[in-house]
Amino acid sequence: MRPVYEVLIKPASRHGLSPLDKEVIDLEKARSCAFQANYHLIWATKYRRKVLLGLVEVRLLEVLKTIASQSGFQL
Question: How many alpha carbons fall within 13 Å on the CB side of residue 17?
Fold first, then answer.
């Protein structure tokens, strides 16, 4: 029996990997499985009011990038 990750990264068509298949290649592998965990975080205020503007926006982006680089996340 072939490992799961070999099956998942096999090209879906003769034209190469589709965009979705390219994401599947970056799998974590354990003894009996292969997996990938992704998170999509959306911050929204009530009524979608714009409150993260100017210096607040710049500083928040700096903090998030710092945390992401320390934790190995991608923004």
Answer: 11
DSSP-based three-state secondary structure for 35: strand
Give the whole-angstrom CA distance, residue 2 versus residue 6. Answer: 7
- Taking the C-alpha atoms of residue 63 and residue 41, their distance in angstroms, rounded to an integer, is 16
> Domain map of the chain by residue range?
4-35, 39-75
H-assigned helices in 1-75:
4-8, 19-24, 54-71
Query: Which structure tokens are listed for 35?
Result: 């997996």
pLDDT tens per residue across span 53-62: 899 889 988 9
pTM beyond 0.70, yes or no: no
Number of H-type helices and E-type strands within the chain: 3, 2
